[in-house]
Specification:
By secondary structure, the protein is α/β, with parallel strands linked by helices. Helix content is about 25%, strand content about 15%. It is built from 12 helices and 18 strands. The protein has an 8-stranded mixed sheet, with helices on both faces. A 4-stranded antiparallel sheet has the order 15-16-17-18, covered by helices on one side. A two-stranded parallel sheet has the order 3-14.
């Protein structure tokens, strides 16, 4: 019988995929060393530009329309608190197959249940770690407590009267936001990493009788970019330029994009450039933490039979188009993720793979590597062929996204390939980019109210066809025909011949 590999997952939060690639200006000695035993997926993307839906996709292999998590599960105006009933995670399959599962760090998949409910032994979790409960299906108003004069945040409410300090954004009536600073232990990520390191250390004296899966989830390099000084010192001042797209006025983009950018307009050009430096320093700090875990894995004596995955849940604009963090602006930076796998099961390591791969691909990958067969279907596909140096002839050419917004809601769906990128925005005009000629997504080719009549109408129709076909396949119900909501230039009916004329779907069962 084939030996089941151990699985070690190191998932960062907000880290762009281009920070770990060969030509990156980011200083990552531990990732560089790991690359020699790994496959780096240079065209990896997440299904949604937000922590919770993307993490839910990672654990289930499904898209938001299938697993039910659309946005932050912990806010009062959330669209969902957790996974749909009956949706299963890969961790449950590993547990049932005899794996020992350990979890240390950020969960953010459900507010109603934690990692322990899905097969993991908890090592460390930020916050209480046990505040999971069933919610009544009525609105909650917990965020209002932040504005209480006697509350914890009361002294931080911005009156707009104090002068703006370095890296600050003045927001009268809100808390003043500071884009960057110094913190020797940002988000207390060291605690999550140390808990994982300690567990690996104890394995040295344990019999190697059952495979393990260890998930390590730091919160960095999430904004705001507060980093240890020694990692900031790795990057001389003014050593990192602003992105080429930084000065995009976005006049041909949805108004929400411009309004989002306006939040950062108070920052000077020098502060934007310094923000880039801080973000890269934060990524270097996460690399340092990853190195601690890899050292502990080596010392545990289990490295040879362990598949290690370094990944992130979503990206960060890092100044592209004048934006930071992530959100509805559907640019590559928000969806570009880290995805590098090395160790057990890798053939011909130290390779780059340019095939488009999704965060949803890892659940079926882990199960195939573990030799676990399941009857349910996934939106993702196993990456085992790529890990073994093969590329399936029928691999996807198109990438798809699903989001209903990050607490500021708006239905948005996107599809792209090597040539075209089309974005359906229910809240504004759509977008079409020629990625071969315009990889920075600077020129929206259908900035007009009637894309169905534009010079690019055939391209838009083709991309709408792909978008609606994927929506039908993944049980995505953003197809209401009401005149006030049916705003796509070409509606779902254009795929009728594809599916034999019947649009009826059995409920998705996971």
């Amino acid at each position: 019988m084939k030996t089941q590999p151990n699985i070690l997952i190191f998932m960062t939060d907000h880290q762009r995929g281009d920070t770990i690639r060969r030509d990156s200006a980011c200083i990552t000695p531990n990732i560089d060393a790991f690359r020699k035993s790994a496959v780096t997926f240079t065209n990896a993307y997440c299904p949604a530009p937000h922590c919770c839906p993307s993490r839910a996709s990672f654990f289930t292999g499904l898209y938001p329309s299938q697993h039910g998590v659309w946005n932050n599960v912990g806010v009062s105006n959330t669209l969902s608190r957790g996974l749909f009933e009956g949706v299963r995670t890969f961790s449950e399959d590993l547990r049932d197959a005899g794996y020992r599962l350990y979890f240390s760090g950020k969960w953010h998949v459900s507010q109603e249940e934690g990692p322990a409910d899905r097969g993991f032994e908890m090592l460390h979790e930020p916050g209480s770690g046990t505040d999971y409960r069933k919610f009544r299906h009525v609105p909650e108003y917990s965020e209002w407590a932040m504005y209480d004069r006697k509350g914890y945040y009361s002294n931080g409410i911005d009156t707009g009267e104090e002068p703006r300090g370095e890296a600050q954004v003045v927001r009268p009536g809100y808390m003043r936001y500071t884009q960057y600073g110094i913190d020797e232990d940002p988000f207390r990520d060291s605690a999550a990493v140390q808990a994982a390191v300690e567990r690996l250390k104890t394995m040295r004296d344990e019999p190697d009788t059952a495979p393990f899966a260890l998930y390590v989830g730091p919160l960095g390099p999430h904004d705001p970019y507060f980093v240890p000084q020694r990692f900031l010192d790795l990057y001389p001042e003014d050593s990192l330029p602003l992105p080429d797209t930084f000065d995009d006025a976005m006049e041909d983009k949805p108004a929400l994009y411009r309004r989002t950018r306006s939040r950062y307009s108070q920052l000077t050009r020098e502060e934007h450039r310094e923000s880039v430096r801080r973000f890269y320093a934060f990524c270097s700090y996460e690399d340092y933490l990853f190195g601690q875990v890899m050292d502990a894995l080596e010392a545990s004596g289990r490295k040879e039979n362990t598949l290690v995955l370094y990944c992130s849940d979503h990206g960060d604009y890092v100044g592209e188009h004048g934006l930071w963090a992530k959100g509805l602006p559907c640019f590559r930076g928000a969806y570009d993720i880290c995805s590098m796998a090395g160790g057990a099961g890798i053939t011909n390591p130290d390779r780059d793979c340019a095939a488009p791969v999704s965060l949803a691909d890892w659940a079926p990958t882990f199960l195939e590597l573990a030799g676990i067969e399941v009857e349910r279907t996934f939106a993702g596909r196993s990456l085992v062929p790529f890990l073994q140096g093969r590329e399936p002839a029928d691999w996807r050419e198109d990438c798809f996204t699903q989001t209903n917004g990050n607490e500021v809601y708006g239905i948005q769906r996107a599809v792209w390939n090597r040539k075209w990128k089309y974005v359906f925005n229910s809240f504004d005009f759509d977008e079409l980019y020629d990625l071969e000629r315009d990889p920075g997504e600077l020129h929206n080719l259908i900035y007009r109210p009637d894309p169905e009549n534009s010079d690019y109408a055939p391209v838009v129709k083709e991309m709408c066809h792909k978008l609606w076909r994927f929506a039908w396949e993944t049980h995505d119900n953003c197809v209401n025909p009401y005149i006030m909501t049916a705003l796509a230039p070409f509606g779902p009916g254009i795929i009728q011949e594809d599916i034999g004329g019947s649009f009826y779907r059995e409920p998705f069962r996971g």
